[in-house]
Amino acid sequence: MSSAAERRARAVGAASAVARAHGLDPADPVVLQDWNNTVVHLQPLALVARVSTSPLAPLARALEREVAVASHLAARSAPVIPPSDLLPPGPHEHAGLLLTFWEFAEGHLAAHEDAAEAGAALAEVHRAFAGFAGDLPSYREQLGAVERLLDDAPLSLAEADRRFLRELYARLARELPEGDERRLHGEAHLANAMVTQDGIRWCDFESVCRGPLEWDLSALPDEGLGAFEDTDSQLLALLRRLRSVCVAVWCSVQPERAPEVAEAAAFHLRLQRELG
C-alpha cells in the first residue's frame, strides 16, 4: 500500500474500533477527506470521525476545546455541525491517533458562490459565542507556530523561498496592532463550511481562538463580508497577507498529502512573491 492508503486505512481502523467499543456498527466506512485530518463517514451511521493524522495535528487539549465550543454553539442553534450524540464526541485516543466524532451532514463544501451565505452564517456563529466561558488562545499563538515552522521544520521550500517567507512574516508581524480580541472560528475559510439542505453549517473549530474580527474575515472572499460592519480595511489587508503566508507554510510541510495541498502551497507562495 502507498503511504496515503496506509494513513487512510489506519484512520478508518481507529474510527471503526472506537465506534464499535461504544456499541455501534460502522459496516461501510468511507473516507470523505484527507487534506489535513482524515475525515471518515462511518456508514450507515450518521456519524463522522475526524482523525488527526497530520504532522500538524493539534494536541488533545485543543480538541477538547473544539468540542466544548461546538457544543456551546450548537446548544444556541448556531449554524454549526454539532458533535455526535451517538457516542461521547471525544477526543478519543486509539493506536496513537486522536479522534473526535461529529454528526454527519449531507451536503458539499461551500464554494465561491456561497460566500455571502457563509459570511452571514459566520456572523451568527460569532453572536452565539456570547456566554462561552472557556479560555481560548490568542490568534498570535497560531502565528507563532508558523514562525517556528519557518525556523525549524522540514519544508518543501527552496532556501530562497523559505528566507523570503521568513522575512515577509517578520515584517508583517511587526505591523500587527494591539487591540480588543473577540472569540473567533480561527480558520473561517469556505472549505470549513458545508452547504446542507438547512443552509450553511460551519465546522472544524480546531483553531478556535481570540483575535480581531478581521482575522476570521481574512479567510473569506470579499463577497462574504456583507454581514459585518465597522471592519478595518487596512487591518484586513494585513491579515490576509499574513494568512496567505501561513497557508504557504502549512501546506509546505506536507505537499504530497493531496494535490490540493501542493496547489495551495504553490499558489500562496507565488501570490506573495507577486505582491513583493
Plain-language structure description:
With 276 residues, the chain is an alpha+beta fold. It has two domains: 3-58 and 82-104; 112-275, Aminoglycoside phosphotransferase (APH), C-terminal lobe (Aminoglycoside 3'-phosphotransferase, Chain: A, domain 2, Alpha-Beta Complex), CATH 3.90.1200.10. 44% of the residues lie in helices and 16% in strands. It has helices at residues 3-21, 60-75, 115-128, 139-152, 159-174, 213-217, 233-253, 259-275; strands spanning 28-33, 38-43, 47-51, 92-94, 97-103, 107-109, 182-184, 193-196, 199-202, 209-211. The strands form three sheets. Strands 1-2-3-5-4 form a five-stranded antiparallel beta sheet, sandwiched between helices. It has a three-stranded antiparallel beta sheet with strand order 6-8-9. Strand 1 (28-33) and strand 2 (38-43) form a beta hairpin. Helix 5 (159-174) packs antiparallel against helix 7 and helix 7 (233-253) packs across helix 8. It starts with a helix and ends with a helix.
List keywords for this structure.
276 residues, alpha+beta, Aminoglycoside 3'-phosphotransferase, Chain: A, domain 2, 2 domains, 5-stranded antiparallel beta sheet, 3-stranded antiparallel beta sheet, 8 helices, 44% helix, 16% strand
Summarize this entry quickly.
By secondary structure, the protein is an alpha+beta fold. It has helices at 3-21, 60-75, 115-128, 139-152, 159-174, 213-217, 233-253, 259-275; strands at residues 28-33, 38-43, 47-51, 92-94, 97-103, 107-109, 182-184, 193-196, 199-202, 209-211.
